[in-house]
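Standup notes
- HV: blocked on the assembly model, inputs below
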Amino acid sequence: MPHVITQSCCSDGSCVYACPVNCIHPSPDEPGFATTEMLFIDPDACVDCGACVSACPVGAISPDTKLTENQLPFVELNAAFYPKREGKLPPTSKLAPVLPAPMIESRGGPLRVAIVGSGPAAMYAADELLTQRGVWVNVFEKLPTPYGLVRAGVAPDHQSTKRVTRLFDRVSEHAGFTAFLNVEVGKHLSHAELLEHHHAVLYAVGAPNDRRLDIEGMGLPGSVTATEVVAWFNGHPDFADLALDLGHERVVIIGNGNVALDVARILTSDPDALARTDIADHALAALRSSKVREVVVAARRGPEFSAFTLPELIGLTAACEVVLDAADHQRVTADLATVADRLTRNKLEILAKLGDASAPITRPRIRLAYQLTPRRLLGEDRISGIEFTDGATLDAGLVATSIGYRGKAIADLPFDEVAGVVPNDGGRVRDSAGAYVAGWIKRGPTGFIGTNKSCAAETVHRLVEDYNQGRLGDPAHKPAALDRLVRSRQPAVVDAAGWRAIDAAEIARGGGQRPRGKFVDIAEMLAVAATAPRPPAHKRLLAGLRR
Ligand code: NAP
């Protein structure tokens, strides 16, 4: 009865180090780790101890006897990663790299690090830093709610992926961790000010912009970006008012990465099923009156180059009706005759079994379409369709581009305009002593939530090395001065107690029927945060001094 890794694998590698027989690969130190679509358990080497189950932050691992029917394809997928052989391998083990201890005694006090952002890269960096004593981490987040794309990016029907927030909650309860939510670095505080209060500033701000498709008609009502749609259905306060017209039968999505699949799935899912998730109320209401019958996911290249991952394709075909038209079925067959790569073949084999688009539409469906490069959006005052470079056209009331995220320049740091990242060496920002980056702003917008664990660890190891080598200047101010500075600039700062109050109120709004009912209005969030019980000011000051 071996264990099996399934769709929500976040690739953070915790399971690798928990496994006593080293049967989970690729591991973070192996070459394939950076590009793998998931991790795989070797069924011949697994001793069925379940240590990986406890280590996995997203509940992606189960014994093979406990899989749901939809998860059964993952049995073969895990096994196929390993060559066939006779007998068990001798057990080995893999130890997680350990952060060097910061030499706080010789530096006369704790290592003080500011982390900007509170998404996965930020929280994994905080987790890594706080494995050592004598480290204080202050996290600064623009919104009153933490966890970045886990809250505002992961699709609401992927609740098991969102379970990683339990790990982040545990990190935030560490005595060395302080949250400054609703505080925007660059507006309320500058980079130079943060450096005056810390040894180092680590930016984990993600890639907040979209890559823009520069074709005629973009910007007309009815044209949106997929990332805006994702933020809208996830209740991000800045996108709650997005004018999303679902009053037409067809939506076209440009690009076929995992974000495109997320949007297509949500737009075609049964609203009653979505009502059991934490989807934003405004989105659920709009989806209940949606007229959309077909979402076409249009890729500019052929099936072999589909950008979505195999686990997501398996999940999509289990949850939704997905079809191909006859020409695309032929393309899949042609690719199967030439493609050797195992994972790509797996994808093609699933595509080959999809139904035909000529069948009548009985419920909202997704059509995966290939060799369609967009030329222009059609329509005068609003979108009425899209024309591709081969002259083909599709009627559509909504066109969403889903061609990737893009990083945004950070004030006072260098920026690579082409790659959309802050230039860095293993996380050390070039020519900027004391500045570090982790996550998408460091390596570009690729990978999964857990990919940020090893990415953040690399940065943190560099940071501690610099601290121990005396390359970081000491903060100019005492720790308590930071709290005063932040409150003078942003009196509505939300602390950990405030977030816990928002969290509890959202869970209560879920009424036991859904994981939570999200607030989307910042004023409402702040009002709830203000109800949090907290010690009087003088006790807070004392706690800060003692910290
Ligand atoms: P992505 O995987 O990079 O896909 C981008 C898509 O846009 C590709 O199909 C690409 O086609 C297409 N594209 C790029 N430029 C184009 C152009 N000018 N015209 C037409 N098409 C164009 O990006 P993503 O979907 O935004 O995902 C970002 C990352 O987040 C990925 O690593 C993804 O796996 C991850 N993610 C994971 C999950 C999950 O695990 N559930 C969910 C969401 C996101 P070409 O290949 O032809 O360039």
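- HV (later): unblocked. Residues 320 and 365 are 7 Å apart (CA to CA). The chain has a mean pLDDT of 94.
- Next: hand off to the docking folks.
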